[in-house]
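Journal club side-thread
Mid-discussion, someone asked how the predicted structure for our own chain would compare to the paper's figures. Pasting it here so we can look after the session.
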Amino acid sequence: MLLLFISLYLLLNVAVGAWAARRVNTAQDYVLAGRRLPLALAASVTFATWFGSETIMGAPAKFVDKGVPAIIEEPFGSALCLFLVGLLFARPLYRLNITTFSDYFRIRFGRSAELLSALIMIPSYFSWIAAQFIAIGIVLNVVTGIDQHYGVVISATIVMIYTLLGGMWSISITDFLHNAVIVVALCIVAVPLWQELGGWEAIQARTATRPNFWQFGPTWTFDGVVEYIAAWITIGLGSLPQQDIFQRVMSAKSEKIAVKSSYIASGLYLTVAALPLFIGLAAQFLHPDLPMSTDSDRQLLIPNMVMKHGSLPLQILFFGAVVSAILSVSSGAILAPAAVFGENVVKFFRPSLSDRDLLRTIRGSVVVITVGCVWMSLARDVSIFDLVGESSAFSLVSLFIPLLAGIYWKPANRLGCLLSMGLGLGIWLVCLLLDTTSMPPMMWGLLASIIGMGIGALAPLLVSGEGKG
């Protein structure tokens, strides 16, 4: 019965994609839903940007193991990112009437910056998408016993089909339905657990023997402060210059709605994301029979609890919520690099490409990217949480500084943009290879990106000064 309901739910998503395809006539319809989303849909689709596997499975696994210090990156960093989008970026970017983030780099820094930003942005999504596929493969394995690899292929195919058909229209409508299921299901799971535990005082008593479990601030050492800052900025700043959040916010039908939807999504993220954290902690306390010795076990903590101790209606609701969340994230994440590839790589070399051919190219890219991410999810044995962090760090060290400086610092120029992207990414990769311990690699990469922008901005002034001398 549980498998039947999940199958029907997945088929419903495909049906919605087929229906939404009727509203897609241009590439902008496909990528930005024609910029016609009202506040309810815009806020819903923005909230769903990252509320996926890492929120429901990855973050609770870290939380039950190491407490609040382990989850600064997610969900707090994700909520910060959504808030900053509304505060700093939604207005200036919406006014440009562009389709992708790399369009902004072309307008501000030139075509070479457009191409380089696109070539950096596209691979940054592969880890993110792979994390979602791994998660849904795990869920299907827990529910049905089907091999995780087959679960990955099945779920990826379904996501690909409805994304392929309706693009952002499919994503917007299905996200609205998904979010309703998520909130209802998580509340129904959480309320009885709260009552069974005995409330907040009982939770504090059970965690009293675990030092620093509820510590929100940093450990006041150099390494502790650096790691704390890195946790906040990995997603908090690193996901700002990414196409998936951009295309969701820019799909709003007005600048005002774009800003409001970001703020609403940030608030929802902080509120709703607390539910799986609590559910994971309650499962650890109330059901010590569940395996929790490894990261993989802890990622399965909530699904295993629901399967072993939940009623059939509860299982249907919960796994519907998990599938909802993962489908929401993965569909938008697949569309993002596909749109950038078509708009900013193919059109870079073929400027005369018609809108119909562009739409066909983006849809073809959806297929190729999905296949590549399926291969990656089957070939790598990495935790969901780590995959998501890896993806955000990629854009943090290369694209964040050029985006921020381009909008808010007049001296920023093309040379600075190119140096910022190249140095930031290069130093980060070198530090990863060397396994540096003095600071997290992303901090070295971000510092190099800042230096690159500064050198590029100052170079014309130095050259001009030498000429006058």
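Post-session note: The mean pLDDT is 87.
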